[in-house]
Amino acid sequence: MTANLNKVIADLIAAGIPPEHIITGLSQNATIAATAAAKEAKIAKNEALEMLTDNLKRVLRYAENTVNYSDEKLELLGWGGRSRPSSQGAPGQVRSLKIVSQGPAWIALD
User: Fold this and answer.
1) How remote is the C-alpha of 84 from its chain's centroid?
2) What does each C-alpha distance from 22 to 19, 32, 40 come to in angstroms?
3) pTM value?
4) Which of 21, 34, 77, 107 could form a disulfide with 102 if both were Cys (CB 3.0 to 4.6 A apart)?
5) Do residues 100 and 110 make contact, with C-beta atoms less than 8 angstroms apart?
6) pLDDT block averages, 10 residues each, the chain of length 110
């Protein structure tokens, strides 16, 4: 491969193409190849992280089901059981409410 590249470079120089143009073209090709490789590596990394996350979630769900959500046993894994649902308090009084427009069966507030 290197011999072929050297021959191509020699032929281009013989054809009157200045060496700096050849080097610029080569570095552009290298940059394009490096960019493509980096994109592929990023995609592979993201896929691996997604698979790892899914596997960890599966293991934790298995642990929760196995110990019947026992907080004491799940804490041994550094994990806690599901928290109990909390009810939200009643909403407070609305303040600074103004009627923007209204009709016979509707009203717009701001």
Assistant:
1) 31
2) 5, 15, 27
3) 0.45
4) 107
5) yes
6) 69 78 71 86 96 93 87 82 77 84 88
